[in-house]
């Protein structure tokens, strides 16, 4: 039988949770979708969009998480997953296996993605470089 007591119903409208800075990366803006509160910290879902051009990128890191997906809604982003360049475009879904070393190094000015991670309070851990990173695409002036 389905347990309906562990989570809450949630309905978040755009005006309820505006995009804000102060998230994991200062060159992105984040919009909380209320899922962490509704699931009592089991899952977080947020929208992430480009705020500033990619200069340094995210750096090499991994997440201490059980589950993570990125669904690209607009634009595109280029990631290194281990030693593989991966272009993620609007409509693509990426499942980042637990512990995969990665680096988001390039993205379009209109990039926006949905990220869903479990648990909500996942940790990000910097790791040693895996390989060289390609140069980002300059944004139009």
UniProtKB/TrEMBL annotation:
It holds the Pfam family Cupin_2. InterPro entries: Cupin_2 (IPR013096), RmlC-like_jellyroll (IPR014710), RmlC_Cupin_sf (IPR011051). It comes from the Bacteria. Residues 51-104 form the Cupin type-2 domain. This is Cupin domain-containing protein. It comes from Hydrogenophaga crocea.
